[in-house]
Amino acid sequence: MKNAYERIVRPLLFAIDPEMAHRLTLGTLSAASRIDLALRALTVFRPPLKPKKLFRLDFPNPIGLAAGLDKNGVALPAWGALGFGFIEIGTVTAKPQPGNSKPRIFRFPEQQALINRLGFNNDGADAVARRLRKLRRSGRWPQVPVGINIGKSMSTALSDATEDYLYSFRALREFADYIVLNVSSPNTPGLRELQGHAALSELLAAIADKNVITRKPIVVKIAPDLMPKELNQIVATCEQNRVAAIIATNATVEHSPIPPDKDEQGGLSGAPLREKSTTLVRQIAAISTIPVIASGGIMDAASAREKIDAGAQLVQIYTGLIYRGPGLIREIAETLE
Ligand SMILES: Cc1cc2nc3c(=O)[nH]c(=O)nc-3n(C[C@H](O)[C@H](O)[C@H](O)COP(=O)(O)O)c2cc1C
Fold it and tell me: Which residues line the pocket of ligand 1, CB cutoff 6 A?
């Protein structure tokens, strides 16, 4: 049976352009984030407590908001009120940037999927830091762990990527419970090359060097389109550099579930990604004790359960939230031990 969001809200949102629907929703949640009464109203979606501890952080439940939905951190209190167990904002880059030309988000309702090629449109690290500082002073900072996902600015050469990540790291670390190095977006040319051993080691060593006093958990987000050999190498590099967790996975560049006449360039997310990302979670868990945060095709309780059974400690949702609404958080939480 369809929930109220699927029956009433989704048809309205799906009647308008995907990016417009996104802006409208985020604008509403951002406005709600400044009004106590509105925040209280959002708590109707809150799931039961399913506490979890990971890298010395307390999560009220293991269901998080995946990166990309609130790139600029404009609605943190609302995400907390809705009942997310943790919130990841970003991807934030060192320089503000507009992203790729529009249209750049596409819905595929039959496949319960999205394709996006946003290209890290965001306000830049300094502006996001200012916004987070203001939020902290307001007393409305959410009660759950907040991760900040950082990536490379489009205009920065791949050879200068480390400096670019370091800039965002320095600007944002004080607000983050954990920092994610996004080396897996398909929409910034060359970015995924940073998953290679030499480049990833250089990046992780440089971040570790500047992470001595604050000591934030460093998390690496990987692509689903990796050969087993490449994955083994990434896991080994993460272990060598004491990475706190791996997020598996980002969106895929493999679009075979989408009819060719409707296909678009970008990263495919949602139901068609489910199996692929679960396979990666299972492969990582088989070779390492490094904690895994699963992301990819979690559309209902069964697909979340599948990630946990495959070895994930935490899960994140994005496309599932667009198709199923905030009721999905409770639906998943209720089936977890
Ligand atoms: C419109 C859109 C924008 C995204 N932007 C980002 C981003 O900025 N950084 C990032 O690490 N992942 C981004 N993602 C990937 C999601 O965080 C998630 O890893 C991926 O979509 C798989 O999960 P899902 O199937 O639940 O959507 C984006 C996904 C979508 C659909």
Answer: 66-68, 71, 90-91, 105, 114, 116, 118, 120, 149, 182, 185, 221, 250-251, 269-270, 273, 295-298, 317-320
* Residue 48 clears pLDDT 90, i.e. is over it: yes
Angle between helices 228-240 and 197-209 (to 10 degrees): 20
Distance CA 91, CA 194 (A): 16
pTM of the model: 0.98
pLDDT value of residue 197: 96
Ligand 1, pocket-test mutation among 111, 154, 222, 318, most atoms within 8 A of CB:
318
When pLDDT is averaged across residues 63-80 and rounded to a whole number, the result is 98
Q: Just list the catalytic residues.
A: 185
- 3 state SS for the chain: CCCHHHHHHHHHHHCCCHHHHHHHHHHHHHHHCCCHHHHHHHHHHCCCCCCEEECCEEECCCEEECCCCCCCCCCHHHHHHHCCCEEEEEEECCCCECCCCCCCEEEEHHHCEEEECCCCCECCHHHHHHHHHHHHHHCCCCCCCEEEEECCCCCCCHHHHHHHHHHHHHHHHHHCCEEEEECCCCCCCCHHHHHCHHHHHHHHHHHHHCCCCCCCCEEEEECCCCCHHHHHHHHHHHHHCCCCEEEECCCECCCCCCCHHHCCCCEEEEHHHHHHHHHHHHHHHHHCCCCEEEECCCCCHHHHHHHHHCCCCEEEECHHHHHHCCHHHHHHHHCCC
Q: Whose CA is nearest to atom 3 of ligand 1?
A: 68
Helix axes 161-172, 125-138, angle to 10 degrees: 10
Q: Is pLDDT of 153 > 90?
A: yes
In DSSP terms, 113 is beta-bridged to: 108, 270
Residue 12, phi then psi, degrees to nearest 5: -70, -45
Please say if the pLDDT value at position 87 is more than 90.
Answer: yes
